[in-house]
Amino acid sequence: GGVGKTTLAEVVFERSRHQFDHGCILKNVREEIEKNGSNHLAKDFIKRLSREENGDLDYAKKRMLSHKKLLFVLDDVD
């Protein structure tokens, strides 16, 4: 910890995101899973990608996961 990995991940994401149809960065993944569980994290991930409040994975798959270029950056993952 403490060497700027999160900052580096953010810079790479910002510089690369224009090359993708959708993308998101999730920070503190380990902490979020410990606090709220992996299902909550997965729904948050889908909401960020699909901009849908319900985090419906089936809807997200139909709407945007098919034949799209996606960028996922997960920070602090064990």
Question: How would you characterize this protein structure?
Answer:
This is Putative RGA. The chain is of the alpha+beta class and 78 residues long. It has one domain (5-74). It has helices spanning 5-16, 29-36, 38-50, 57-65; strands spanning 22-26, 70-74. A two-stranded parallel ribbon has the order 1-2. α2 (29-36) packs across α3 (38-50) and α3 (38-50) runs parallel beside α4 (57-65). The protein starts with a helix and ends with a strand.
Key phrases:
alpha+beta; 2 strands; 78 residues; single chain; two-stranded parallel sheet
Number of helices: 4
**How can the largest sheet be summarized?**
2 strands, parallel
Q: Which range does the strand content fall in?
A: 5-15%
Radius of gyration: 13 Å
Number of domains: 1
H/E topology pattern: HEHHHE
Protein name: Putative RGA
Domain NB-ARC: 1-77
GO molecular function, one term: ADP binding
Q: Could you write a compact summary of the structure shown?
A:
The protein is an alpha+beta fold and 78 residues long. Helices cover 54% and strands 13% of the residues. The protein has helices at residues 5-16, 29-36, 38-50, 57-65, and strands at residues 22-26, 70-74.
Task: Give a topology summary.
Blueprint: H1 5-16, E1 22-26, H2 29-36, H3 38-50, H4 57-65, E2 70-74
Helix pairs in contact: 2-3, 3-4
